Each structure stands twice: as C-alpha cells, then as structure tokens.
C-alpha cells in the first residue's frame, strides 16, 4: 500500500511581523515526519500561507501545534488587512496528495477540529468536503461577517459552531474562529492590473468568477432582482470553479484580482489568466503579470507551458525546465518578485535528494564510470547512450518545427518531439535503475546465511534481484529500439541538413540495444527460473535483430543522400 500523504495549508492572520510568522511556522517541524514546504507572507493582506506535508496523523498534530501557537501570538482584536478573515488561524484545509481519499481526509479534519475546540477553546466550522451541512460547504458563508461579526454569529442558532464554544469569550476575543476543511488542491492566484482602482478590479472579478454578479432592475443600479425564493438573481461569470474579488495592494501600488481556483482540472491557471486579460482589455485595462500564493503542482505549470507554446505554434517537445520557464514568463509570475520553481512547485520540494547518476555533469558521469567500482557499468551506459540518441532525434524534430516555410507542419514535428521527450525521460530513469538493480543483487549476497531459514531467504532475495536486473536492461532494449521511430521519421520528413544528426541518433539507439542485450543474456544465465530466463532471452533476441536491421536500412539511406 502506498504511504498516505496529505498537505496542510493553514492561513494565519499575520503577514507583517516576520518574527511572529517564523515562530508559528517553525512549530510544524517539531513533529517528526512532517516537512515544511513553504511560508508565503503578504503585507497588504496581513496574512501568511503556510504549507507542509506528511502522513495524516503527523500532519494534524503539526496543524494543532500551529493553531495553538498562532492563538498565543496573534491578537485578532488588533488585526486589519485586505483579505477576509475571522481568526488567528483563519483557515486550515487538508489536501490529499497520495494514497488517501477526500473522504478519508475529511475524517482527519473532524478529528483536528474536535481537538481544537476541546483543548484550545476556539470555535470553528467545517467547510468544503468536511462540511456537516450544505449551507456550510462554502467558506465565504462560514466566514461571513468576519471577525467583527463573530459575537452575533456564534449565538445565532443557524451558525452554532461545529466545534468549540458558542460564545464570544476571552479566548475568542483574541484568537477569533477557524474554518477547517478537506478539499481538492486549490491554487491561490492573483492577477496584476495597470490600475489602482479596486472597483475596476472587482468588475473584472465579477465577469470571471463562477458566482458572477448580482442582477439589478436597472442593469447596474437600483433594486436587486430577487427570485421566487427571495434570493438575489445572479448573472453567472465566465469560468467554473473560480472564486474572485478585486483589491488594492499598497505594497505594490496596484490593484489585483485575487482568485481561488478550486478545481484546476475545470479551470486551470492559464485559462483564468487569458480570460481575465480579455475582460481587462474590454474595460480599457491590461494585465501586467500575476502572482502565485503558496505552492502549485508541476502539472499545472507544464499545462500552462504547453498552452502558450500551442498559441505560438511552437513545438511542445521541449524539456520540462523550458516549459516551466515559458509558463513563468507567459503568466508574468516574476512581475512583482522573483519566481523560483524549486521553491514554488510542490514536486520539486518533495524531490528525493539522493545522489543520482543523471544529475552528474558529463565529466562527472565519466569519472564515476571510470572509478574503481563495478557500477555504473555497461547497462547504465547503454541506457545513457540511448538517451543521447533519441535526444538527437528530438532535436531534429524541434528544429524542423521552426523551419521557415514549414509553419503548417509544426504540429506534426511537435508530436514527434513529444514522443522523443517521453523516450528520453524513460531512458534517463533506466540509467540509475540499472545500477540500482545491480546493487540489489549485491545486497542479496550480503544477507546472513547462518540458519536454513536465512539461507532460503538469501536465495530468494538473490533470485528476485537477478530477475529484476534482467528485466531492467530488457526495458532499455525495448525503449531504445522503439525510440528509433523518431529518428527514422526525421530522416524522411525532417530537415535534410540534419540527416547526419538523426543517423547518429539511430547508431546510439542501436548501441543501447546491443549493450543492454549483453546484460540480459549475462544476467539471465544465473536465473533459476529457466522458463522465465529462456523467454526473456528469446524476446530480447527479436529486438536485437530488429535493431540491427534498422541500422542497416538507415546506413543505406544516409549513404544514398551524401
């Protein structure tokens, strides 16, 4: 079973006093197994978004400690800021990351809320997927009236807290209330305008957000139109799963539209940006950039990069780093302050920092290979040579997508470049995996063998590791052989001035196949399961012969052209 991971994103009502912010954030790291990912303060909003991740029990313990510390250090009776708020820890959502459902995360949200109410005496509400009633699902409803309206709200039977005291006591006077939830990944995203007008920023927010704007009898003024239930009639906005308001940020001297993108599968960041830009232009304004609050999934950044590449009719088959750079520049995420992907993209923050071969420099990789150690060996080198081969084919595809006069064929070459990138990434992963597979065999031989039970466990471990060490080079063979299709397509359809590059790519792929074939055969001979061993040898021989045939065909083609 995969390890359960949840992200917690508490928003505290302090964005100016760095000492207080740090004192609150640091308590998260007092819980073993919890990783503090991000602390993002905002002076104008007087609010800080803190992000941490870990296994559920550890995360809710860290959240409890943070809520307690925030209640000790933040006095809500003295708080002011642009963002709606009603508590020292204003909201505390739990977000499933892996191995856990929203329903399971909601159980932990309730567990956290119950403890906050009982032990800290702080009242609060469950919202989103943790809500106990439909009327409390919306955070805006739970927080309506903000801190200043809490005294009346808490004694209102319709708004009796889900946990904690239903009275405005001394604790509540200082710490306010809290909203706790389980929800999908939410992106807090602000768009910068070339105006100082909050009214104009709000007008655009109303154009875009799902809730839209209230409808008036005289169009933009007069009485609010009501439906048969006495509720205001609304004119829906353009985008689903979007909440938004306009505000003025004194720190930057501009107005912003502040969005919550509650489901980026429905409305991703780049669509919110583009639609806002259209509405801004219609109102005589323009966007100068945007600002990401907290963290973002890598996929959202890559999707944005692809979106803007398509608009430019450019190949999508470029590196992950280049796509992220395109997204940052296209969205203007560095307009107000530097944007560091390693600090803002959640996968980069969670990345395993174990030393990898593919992270070495070219000379470093060569030195590591030449050192007095058995690994990396021929298997890893075969995978890396295959990586270089398909990288050349991908290069030709990308160059062809840019060729003058071939504008109508850019998507054709882009598709091939995307395929090439996928092969390249798989082969890169196999560079390290081949060495890891070999090390598993060594680990097996190092196991104790004093008792019959230990001998049997050792024997099984070695057999399992040897099978794996045979499967990995077989995957190298398959991937390298399949990658030849990219180079073959570029030899026939790509820039003819680059046929030598595509040809070298084929030769590299052929070398990867042959080298990995050696490894399959040498490892398979030690496998006790001879049925498996003979089958994988037979299948690898088929790929080996096919690769040699492609090499011969390509050699003939190239010599016919030069």
Task: Describe the protein's architecture and organization.
The chain is built from 18 helices and 13 strands. The chain is an alpha+beta fold and 562 residues long. It has three domains: 5-182, Formiminotransferase-cyclodeaminase, Chain B, domain 1; 187-349, Alpha-Beta Plaits (2-Layer Sandwich); 357-561, Up-down Bundle (Four Helix Bundle (Hemerythrin (Met), subunit A)). Strand 3 (35-42) and strand 4 form a beta hairpin. The relative contact order is 0.07.
Question: Total strand count, please?
Answer: 13
Measure the end-to-end span.
Answer: 57 Å
Shape: globular
Number of helices: 18
Biggest sheet layout: 7 strands, mixed
CATH architecture of the largest domain: Up-down Bundle
Low-confidence parts: none
Mean pLDDT: 94
Helix content: 40-55%
Structural class: alpha+beta
Report the CATH C-level class of the largest domain. Answer: Mainly Alpha
Estimate nothing, just give the exact number of structural domains: 3
Strand content: 5-15%
Radius of gyration: 29 Å
Q: Any descriptors?
A:
single chain, 562 residues, alpha+beta, Formiminotransferase-cyclodeaminase, Chain B, domain 1, Alpha-Beta Plaits, Four Helix Bundle (Hemerythrin (Met), subunit A), 3 domains, seven-stranded mixed β-sheet, four-stranded antiparallel β-sheet, 18 helices, 13 strands, globular
Topology at a glance:
Layout: E1 5-8, E2 11-12, H1 18-25, E3 35-42, E4 47-54, H2 56-73, E5 89-98, H3 102-120, E6 124-128, H4 139-143, H5 150-155, H6 170-175, E7 178-182, E8 187-193, H7 198-208, E9 213-214, E10 234-235, E11 242-249, E12 254-261, H8 269-282, E13 287-293, H9 298-311, H10 320-331, H11 341-344, H12 346-349, H13 362-370, H14 378-402, H15 410-445, H16 452-493, H17 499-524, H18 530-561
Parallel strand pairs: 5-7, 6-7
Antiparallel strand pairs: 1-4, 1-5, 2-4, 2-5, 3-4, 8-12, 8-13, 9-10, 11-12
